[in-house]
Q: What sequence folds into this?
């Protein structure tokens, strides 16, 4: 069974600085999707960025980018120029490209932004 | 475009009671997913419905059940509520797998 591990329960970063959230996953599949979701205090889960495993190029969405290392099964999220609105729980997630359709989530990293 | 809508937003139930939570997916999305987010446990997969059929369920007892209606909206039913059922219940919909989910704002269930 696939698993997703986020080893940092909490992190803090100074406003305008850069922070990297770590995520590793375990799978025997070669074709899958990876996601980062953000859950602010409003509790609405928001898709931040996604990565297709067959693409070597790292995904980027404005200030958010990933470092996808398929061989190492690592999928870290980098947030540049951190803003107060980035404070939230961040969840790393995995979804198989075939068969079972559910997304598997890590336990999350709570990110604090220090003014 | 309306997002995923869930109702109610909050409710309080007594142990042993039954509860029904509701979810309307984004128009055009046929798949609905239910997750339980209990404190400290992350998101646990509950149920997946597609085209009116239950496609998969997570490791939850049979007292967690649901259904999907012809308009693709869905209900989650929990019978014989226990204190540990207190959690945020999230519904999500998806058009195709590689787009990830769009989540609703959740229903906060408190069992006392």
A:
């Amino acid at each position: 069974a696939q698993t997703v591990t986020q080893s940092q329960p909490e992190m803090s970063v100074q406003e305008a600085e850069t922070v990297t959230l770590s995520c590793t996953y375990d799978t025997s599949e070669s074709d899958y999707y990876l996601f980062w979701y953000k859950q602010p205090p409003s509790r609405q889960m928001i898709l931040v960025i996604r990565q297709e495993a067959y693409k070597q190029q790292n995904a980027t969405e404005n200030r958010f980018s990933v470092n996808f290392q398929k061989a190492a099964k690592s999928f870290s999220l980098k947030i540049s120029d951190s803003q107060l609105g980035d404070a939230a729980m961040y969840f790393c997630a995995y979804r198989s490209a075939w068969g079972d359709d559910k997304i598997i989530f890590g336990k999350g990293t709570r990110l604090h932004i220090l003014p | 475009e309306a997002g995923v809508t869930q109702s109610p937003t909050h409710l309080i139930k007594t142990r042993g009671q039954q509860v029904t939570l509701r979810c309307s997916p984004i128009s055009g999305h046929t798949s609905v997913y239910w997750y339980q987010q209990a404190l400290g446990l992350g998101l646990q997969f509950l149920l997946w419905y597609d085209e009116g059929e239950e496609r998969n369920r997570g490791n939850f007892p049979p007292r967690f059940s649901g259904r999907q209606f012809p308009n693709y909206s869905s209900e989650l039913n929990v019978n014989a509520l226990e204190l540990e059922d207190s959690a945020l219940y999230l519904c999500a919909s998806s058009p195709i797998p590689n787009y990830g989910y769009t989540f609703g704002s959740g229903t906060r269930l408190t069992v006392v």
Observations:
- Chain B touches chain A at residues 31, 33, 35, 41-43, 45, 48, 50, 55-56, 58, 88, 90, 92, 97-106, 108 (CB under 8 Å).
- Residues 7 and 76 of chain B are 11 Å apart (CA to CA).
- Chain B has a mean pLDDT of 93.
